Amino acid sequence: MYILATAVCLLGFASTQTVTKLTSCLTKEKNLRMDCKYELTAATPVPTCTYTQENSVVGSTDPAKSPDPTFKNRGVVVITENITTCRLTLTGFSDDKPKNFTCTIKQKETVSKTSTVEKKLLLECSAWSEHGSMLMLIVTSLVLLLQAKWL
After folding, report:
1. 42-54: b or e for each residue (b if 16 or more CB lie within 10 Å)?
2. How many other C-beta atoms can be found within 10 angstroms of the C-beta atom of residue 76?
3. What are the pLDDT digits (tens) for 94-125?
4. What is the pLDDT of residues 20-37, one digit of tens each?
5. Which residues pair with 50 in a beta bridge?
């Protein structure tokens, strides 16, 4: 019985590595910025992140992966925010047709997520676009709390 209870508890704390969100926007300079948010299974080793477009490497934090000549010196990839976000900044992003970009995170496992990006449909990057949903949640919660107080 104790073994079963221990197994259930341990399984409850087990987590898998996943890409939780892949977003894109245009910087003020009209460059593409993509943020790939992910969850890790452990703190080490530090993950690597690679962005590809139609199987061509755009940029990577893995020194063993060189960008395709099409993207050389145009794509910059960095891991930010306590190693849970991988950011691509791509200069010279054309608006001729939609393109599929894939973010691949490799740590103990390899996970990826793909998004279709069309320049004319992208919004400009801003603090609101990055943190707007959290701000909206806080404001809504405060309104509900104030209403409950007056009832």
Report:
1. eeeeebbbbbbbe
2. 15
3. 878 999 999 999 988 899 999 999 999 999 99
4. 999 999 999 999 999 999
5. 60, 104
Q: Rounded CA gap, 32 and 150, in Å?
A: 47
Q: Is there a contact between 97 and 119 (Cβ–Cβ < 8 Å)? A: no
DSSP output for the chain = -HHHHHHHHHHHH----EEEEEEEEE-TTS-EEEEEEEE-S-S-SPPEEEEEETTEEEEES-TT-PPPGGGTTTEEEEEETTTTEEEEEESS---SS-EEEEEEEESSSEEEEEEEE-GGGPPBP-HHHHHHHHHHHHHHHHHHHHHHHH-
Instruction: Express each pLDDT in 121-145 by its tens digit.
Output: 999 998 654 444 444 434 444 444 5
pTM for the full predicted model: 0.73
* 101 in Cβ contact with 52 (< 8 Å): yes
